[in-house]
Specification:
alpha/beta; Rossmann fold; 2 domains
C-alpha cells in the first residue's frame, strides 16, 4: 500500500487470520495490505477434533478469516466455523469470512427427490457461527448470495484471468462454454477478449461422467479458450476438448477459477490436447499436482483490495471494472 499513514492505521485496526486450507494465499493478501498475518494455532487434538487458539489480541478489531473450504472440505469448513466462533468470543468488532472457494456449492437446489441444499446449509452454519459478513470469489451459482442473512460481497476473477490471455495476443480466438449453464460467464469473457462465443451442449449421465451431444458455434481453425468456474475430476473438461478437436479447432486453452483437481484430473489433463490450463490460487495446489500445462495466477491483490475497501467502508463494485485490475 502506497500511503504509509493509511497502512499504519489499517495495521492497528485489522486482523487477518487463516486456517490450514490456503496459508500461502493469506500471506500474499497480508503482503498486499502491508499487515502481518495474525497468529493462531489451528491443529488437532489426539482424537482428531480441531483445536483453535487465536494468539494475538483481536479485541475490537475488524477480523477477516481467509479459508477455502477445499479438500478435505469437512476439515477446512470446521476450521473456519471454529475460527469464526473463537474470533467472536475474543470480542472482535466484526468478523468477515473470506472464502476464495466456497465448497458444497454444487448442491444449490433440489434437482432430484430427497436431496439436500448444501449451499444453503453451509450458509446457515457460517452465520450461526458468528460471521457478520461474507467475501466470496466466483461462487458456483450467483443465487447463493441470497442464502445468507448477512451482507455478501461477491468477487469475480475474470479480469485477472482475461488479462493473462490479452497479453498472449492469441489470433483467431473463440471462447467456449463447456455447458449451457456457463453461458453468462463465457459471454463476459467473449466481450472482454473480443472473441466469438461457442457452447458445448452436454448431458450429465452421473456425478462423475458427462457426454457431449452438440457443439453450438464455429471453432474450426480457431484457437479456443474454455472458461468455467471449477475443474474437479476434469471429465467434463476433457470431453469438451475432444469435441472441439473433432470440430477442427487449433490450440485449446482453459481458464478455470477453482482448481479442485480431484482423483484422475492431473493424469487426464496431462494426456489431453489442452495446451495450457490457467487457474487461480483460490485453492492451494499440492506440489505433486503442479505440471507444465498448469499456470497459476494470484487473486491475492483482488481479495486484498476488497478487504481494504470493506474495512474502510468503501465500494467493492469498483473491483468489477477492468481498470481496477490493470491499475
Amino acid at each position: 500500500m502506497k500511503n504509509g499513514k493509511s497502512s499504519k492505521a489499517i495495521r492497528r485496526q485489522i486482523s487477518i487470520l487463516t486456517g490450514n486450507s490456503n496459508p500461502g494465499l493469506a500471506k500474499s493478501i497480508c503482503t498486499h495490505l502491508g499487515v502481518p498475518l495474525s497468529q493462531a494455532v489451528v491443529d488437532r487434538f489426539p482424537e482428531g477434533e480441531i483445536h483453535v487458539q487465536i494468539q494475538d489480541n483481536i479485541r475490537g478489531k475488524d477480523v477477516f478469516i481467509i479459508q477455502s473450504t477445499s479438500s478435505p472440505p469437512n476439515d477446512h469448513l470446521m476450521e473456519l466455523l471454529i475460527l469464526i466462533d473463537a474470533a467472536r468470543r475474543a470480542s472482535a468488532s466484526r468478523v468477515t469470512a473470506v472464502l476464495p472457494f466456497y465448497g458444497y456449492a454444487r448442491q444449490d437446489r433440489k434437482d432430484k427427490p430427497r436431496v439436500p441444499i448444501t449451499a444453503k446449509l453451509v450458509a446457515n452454519l457460517l452465520v450461526s457461527a458468528g460471521a457478520d459478513r461474507i467475501l466470496a470469489l466466483d461462487l458456483h451459482a450467483g443465487q447463493i448470495q441470497g442464502f445468507f442473512d448477512v451482507p455478501v460481497d461477491h468477487l469475480y476473477s475474470i479480469n485477472v484471468l482475461s488479462k493473462y490471455f490479452l497479453k498472449k495476443k492469441l489470433k483467431n480466438l473463440a471462447i467456449v462454454s463447456p455447458d449451457v449453464g456457463g453461458i453468462k460467464l463465457a459471454r463476459a469473457y467473449s466481450k472482454l477478449l473480443d472473441a466469438p462465443l461457442a457452447i458445448v451442449d452436454k448431458r450429465r449421465e452421473s456425478a462423475m461422467q458427462t457426454k457431449v451431444m452438440h457443439l453450438i458455434g464455429e471453432v474450426r481453425n480457431r484457437n479456443v479458450v474454455i472458461v468455467d468456474d471449477l475443474v474437479s475430476t476434469a471429465s467434463s473438461l476433457i470431453e469438451a476438448v475432444q469435441a472441439l478437436k473433432r470440430e477442427g479447432c487449433l490450440d485449446v486453452y482453459a481458464a478455470i477459477v477453482h482448481p479442485i483437481l480431484a482423483g484422475p484430473a492431473i493424469a487426464r489433463i496431462q494426456k489431453s490436447a489442452i495446451k495450457e490450463l490457467v487457474v487461480s490460487n483460490s485453492i492451494a495446489i499440492p506440489k505433486e499436482k503442479i505440471i507444465k500445462k498448469i499456470k497459476v495466477l494470484s487473486v491475492a491483490p483482488l481479495l486484498g483490495e476488497a478487504i481494504k475497501r470493506i474495512h474502510q467502508n468503501e465500494s467493492v463494485s469498483f473491483l468489477f471494472h477492468k481498470s481496477a485490475v490493470e491499475a
